[in-house]
Amino acid sequence: MTAASFRVTQDGQGRHHVQLLGQWSLRVSLNDFAKLKKSLQPFFADNFTKWDLLEVHQLDAAGAATLLSGWENKLNDNISLKPEHAELFNTLISLAKTSDKKTVSDWLSPLNSLGKGVLQFMHHIVEFSRLLVSLLIEIAYLFRHPQDFPWREFSANVYKSGVNALPVTALLGFMIGIVMGYLMSKQLHTFGADVYIVNILGLSIIRELGPVLMAVLVAGRSGSAMTAQIGVMRVTDEIDALTTMGISRTLRVVLPKVLGLTFVSPLLVLWTSSWALTGGAFASNLELGISFRFFFDYLPLVVQPINLTLSLLKGLMFGFVVALVACHFGLRIKPNTESLSNSTTSSVVTAISGVILVNAIFAILTRSIGV
Amino acid sequence: MPNSPNQSSINQEIICDLQNICTAFGDNIVHQNLNLKVRRGDIIALVGRSGCGKTTLLRHIIGLTKPKSGKVLLFGENMLIMERVAQRRLMQRFGVLFQQGALFSALSVFDNIAFPLRELKQFDESVIYQLVMHKLALVELEARDAMLLPAEISGGMVKRVGLARALALEPELLVLDEPTAGLDPDRSHNFIDLVTQLKKSLGLTVIFVTHDMDTLASLAERVAVLEDKHIIADCALHELIKSNHPFVVNFFQSIRSRLEGL
Q1: Which residues pair with B38 in a beta bridge?
Q2: Which is the most buried residue in A214, A235, A237, B52, by most CB within 10 A?
Q3: Closest to A336 (Cβ–Cβ): which among B117, B120, B151?
Q4: Is B141 within a domain?
């Protein structure tokens, strides 16, 4: 193997003769066409240079295209070629990009993309409602045929998104509780209102923080997993296989996920909130010297029990929203990696935004209860 | 011709040399003391029953997996103990067509073929455009197919695009895993013609795995039979038919009976 090279001579009239030698092919791994092109650049620029390719052993499309780009995509009389190479050059010339499409700046494009965005949003809303309705239809069907309830999938989902989430939700709840406890006890201590730490922590954690924290974690953990799973099932035709067996995909795939997460979320809210409260009690014990016994005895007196009911209701709704959004995006995944990643991202982002939106609406509706 | 074909092929340089390969998945021994040599210019088919380790052997050859013991020499070098730059250079000397095409699903056909060329960082976009179009023409695809995504094209086209991508860096060795699986007879016939023609015009060496008798009969110049953990036969197809190894006899039974039925 001989790497591609060239030799330059000058004739009496000052014209350059460039003789190309060796193998102008990608097969010779020593060849670097970028370097060759750069060192040939002065001769490409000179229109009177004579080119001699008769000594080239082997020429492939890569070598030929590199030379052609220097010759501005045409052959002329200054270039002497072997006939078999001429054929390759002519093929490549015919394949050259004919017209570079100029990017015309379109003043309407922002408006266009806005319109597209709105249409896509509407499409999502329609599809989402369709999924919701078909889910309700399946639930109605299950009332008449209770034996068709997918218990196995349901319990698998309860286990995966509930039981497996226990350690991480406990850890996060505990740490958030500690942080909140420390920050608030500092503030309250300045006013000498130490004992109100129980009121503040109790109300904020039970009513707001516990459910929202749980929902964010579950959206990131189980929501993304559900979207990816349904997406891959779609890509590998598993959903179609289910349908051909006469099994409704909503019943077997969507329903157990939605019901499973809806069922397990209130329990997770309880779990997360109790760990957050423990963390808070821990911090107030260290910072303000409030005993655990006092903290938990005093808690039910200052936080009305209705707050717990509200918190469980929130958990129920959040679980439902996260699972339904996850299934919605999962069912829209197209068979390519880009779509899979985009849908999983949108699923998590939409689920969290949805949860916060629902939370805000719920807060307004229940503003006079329990505070 | 001064030499018989056999003689001339012996004089050729050995491109791929498998020496005493042993592979095991857990307790399941797949290859034991397996030896195979591929010479420059060969078109060699690897056949054997399903699950006998043909694809695993291909993956050893292209360096994706490492045998438990034994050596794989590709172009006379052991890829697994090379330094990174040299390894990458060596990998540019062969092209692989995977069974499902393995096109990058997020990239268009054009970008799929342009990908290895761009990675070289030697060409500007106008040259890459010409080269991609040249490769597309080589595998008989139209320029207007270039902007489609892999999900939008048919199985036959996926294989062609995969082949074009494998050919992008002008490899010396082409490794095909089930090149005609999932194609209808007409398309698979066209695909075989394409490979044969490319082999001649580009001077390729081809190693492929197949289950399809038509592909075997029309493409392979040599057949290596993998059975009972090693290569039991490595010869031309017409010599193989004379063999009386029970597996070979079984394997070709169907063809014989069909031929007799005609």
Answers
A1: B16
A2: A214
A3: B151
A4: no
Q: What is the pLDDT of residues B188-218, one digit of tens each?
A: 888 888 888 888 877 888 998 988 777 888 8
Identify the CA nearest to B35 among candidates B51, B13, B19, B52.
B19
Q: Which domain holds residue B83?
A: 14-93+212-262
Work out how many domains chain B is built from and give that number.
Answer: 1
d(CA B253, CA A294): 87
Amino acid making up residue A274:
S
| Mean pLDDT rounded to a whole number for chain A | 89
Which of A301, A262, A295 minimizes the C-alpha distance to A276?
A295
Mutate to test the interface with B, among A27, A84, A94, A232 (most CBs of B within 10 A): A27
C-beta separation of A150 from A255 below 8 A:
yes
The predicted-structure confidence for A223-262, as pLDDT tens digits, reads as follows: 999 999 999 998 888 888 888 888 888 998 999 999 999 9
Q: How many Å apart are CA B171 and CA B154, to the nearest integer?
A: 25
Instruction: Please answer yes or no on whether A95 and B122 come within 8 Å at the CB atom.
Output: no
Q: Where are the domains of chain A?
A: 5-95, 113-365
B231: in domain = yes
Q: Which CATH superfamily is domain A5-95 in?
A: STAS domain (3.30.750.24)
Q: What is the pLDDT of residue B260?
A: 67
Find the farthest-apart pair of alpha carbons in chain A and give their distance in angstroms, rounded.
Answer: 108
Chain segment B56-75, per-residue pLDDT in tens: 888 888 888 888 888 888 88
Distance between CA atoms of residues A254 and A237, nearest Å: 16
Residue B165, both tokens: 């991508």
Sheet with strand B222-227: strands edge to edge: B94-97, B173-177, B205-209, B43-47, B222-227, B230-235
Distance separating alpha carbons of residues B159 and A315, to the nearest angstrom: 50
Tokens representing B115 are: 């990908």
- Chain A residues whose beta carbon lies within 8 Å of the beta carbon of residue B171: 27
Of B227 and A202, which is predicted with more confidence? Answer: A202
Tell me the chain A residues in contact with residue B13 when contact means C-beta distances shorter than 8 Å: none
Structural tokens at position A110: 């922002």
How far apart CA A242 and CA A349 sit, in angstroms, is: 29
Q: What is the 3-state secondary structure (H, E, C) of A43-70?
A: HHHCCCCEEECCCEEEECHHHHHHHHHH
Contact criterion met (CB < 8 Å) for A95 and B93 = no
Residue A103 tokens read as 């990017």
Helix/strand/coil for A16 = strand
Q: Report yes or no on B191 lying in a domain.
A: no
Sign of the dihedral through C-alpha B80, B82, B88, B93:
negative
**Is residue B9 pLDDT above 50, yes or no?**
no
Orientation angle between helical segments A210-218 and A255-288, nearest 10 degrees: 130
Question: Which residue in A has a C-alpha nearest to residue B102's C-alpha?
Answer: A336
CB contact under 8 A, B151 and A61: no
Return d(Cα A229, Cα A331) in angstroms, integer. 10
Q: Considering the domain boundaries, does residue B9 fall inside one?
A: no
Half-sphere exposure of B138 (CA within 13 A, CB side): 28
